[in-house]
Amino acid sequence: DNKDKILCIADLERAASKKLPITAREFYNSGSTEQITVNENSTAYAKYRVRPRVLVDVSKADPSTTCLGRKVSFPLGVSPAGLQGMAHPDGEVATSRACARKGVNMGISSFSNYSIKDVRKAGLDIGPISHAIQLYTLKNRELELSIIREAEAQGCTAIFLTADSPVLGVRYNEWRNDFRTPKGLSFPILKRTSEMIQKQTHDDQFMSFNDDAHNWARDIPWLRSVTKMEIWIKGILTAEDTLKAIEMGCDGVLVSNHGGRQLDGVPATLDALPECVAAANGRIRIHVDGGVRSGTDIFKALALGAEYVWVGRPVIWALAYNGEQGVDVMLNTLYSEFKRCMQLTGCNSIKDITKACLGLVRSDGPLARL
Ligand code: FNR
User: Fold this and answer.
1) For the residues of 209-251, what is the DSSP string, one character each?
2) Is any ligand 1 atom within 6 A of the Cβ of residue 28?
3) Would you identify the family this protein belongs to, as annotated (predicted)?
């Protein structure tokens, strides 16, 4: 039935909403407190218009680029969002297979419902793929080190150190719905069986792990001393912290506000991106996630200086809609939207996507050049 055909990410969100029980749906979709940041992450994209160049031969337009040491089909990857097993029983394993099939990379959340080994193997069975292991600064250093060693053993390329979560953001839905991880799901990376999780309170489930004493001086040199994997800081929103990441010798920063799930009222990532790009001045890699819902959004983020873009919720909706095939649909949709956007703006390669491709909408006059 054509009416139900999935044509865009909004269609996937609607299809997923019909399938997910309210507790799961709100857990996935919500941001913290007033929902300002989660909403602004997406609406920030609407402030920009694309400035197309016409009559350009775009018959050989090539959206491919590189990310985490590997050629990728286009500049998009799947962010490390946890609990994918609640959206579909195949969870992160399905995501990994679909990412490998499309030729893009994936972040593995510490709260993955499958082990690093299972997720890596599932992808590699299909084709080459780079994985980043998402890490929190844990109170339990032994556990943190064992995750690092396992990620190395399984061939992960990078650590995404999530820096925005010394404590958990306030998400009202989780309290109102008394959100609990469903029975049968475990967190193998954190060595928590389903039975152990069922005995914990809501707060314990997520925050018994994280160390609110984490800091640049203690944690980054330590990470550097124990691993050769790339070290990326996930959750940067300012020029100051971009400079700090450079000073600490990190390999990259992921401009992110955790999909609006940590502190509400921080800027949309697209609005934080330019100051981070300016501060970096080419000295550190810059990726971004948050609110990306179309190929044109990816294009805009690149035009503002990001090298690569990641998506969280779209993969959750895709899994809920139809597991691995759903993730195929999601990635294929964003790929064709992005390639078409390149062609319709006269861009033949990723390096053609520059500031000149965008203008900022003004309420009181013509488009402002950047
Ligand atoms: C997340 N995110 C996240 N980040 C992280 O570093 N560790 C984690 O375990 C999780 N878990 C998680 C669960 C769910 C359900 C969501 C929606 C998000 C944040 C994620 O990596 C990413 O930053 C955002 O999802 C990006 O925003 P969008 O694309 O969801 O708008």
Assistant:
1) SB-TT--HHHHHHHHHHH--SEEEEEEE-SHHHHHHHHHTT-S
2) yes
3) Belongs to the FMN-dependent alpha-hydroxy acid dehydrogenase family.
* pLDDT score, position 207: 66
For β-strands 65-67 and 252-255, DSSP reports them as: unpaired
Does ligand 1 lie within 6 Å of residue 111's CB atom?
yes
Ligand 1: distance of its center to the CA of 84 in Å? 11
326 contacts 318 by C-beta, under 8 angstroms: yes
- Please confirm, yes or no, whether 202 is among the known catalytic residues: no
CB of residue 264 inside a 6 A radius of ligand 1: no
| Residues of the chain falling short of pLDDT 50 | none
82: CA distance to ligand 1 center in Å? Answer: 7
Nearest 5 degrees, angle CA 299-CA 302-CA 303?
85
Per the CB < 8 A criterion, the answer to whether 171 and 32 are in contact is yes
DSSP state of 224: H
Substitution site in 40, 79, 181 for ligand 1 pocket (most atoms within 8 Å of beta carbon)? 79
State residue 206's pLDDT score. Answer: 66
Reading the block at residue 230, the tokens are: 């790339």
Contact assessment for residue 245 and residue 236, using Cβ atoms and an 8 Å cutoff? yes
Decide whether any atom of ligand 1 lies within 6 Å of the 171 Cβ.
Answer: no
ipTM: 0.99
Residue with tokens 């979560």: 165
Burial class (CB in 10 A: 0-12, 13-18, 19+), 60: exposed
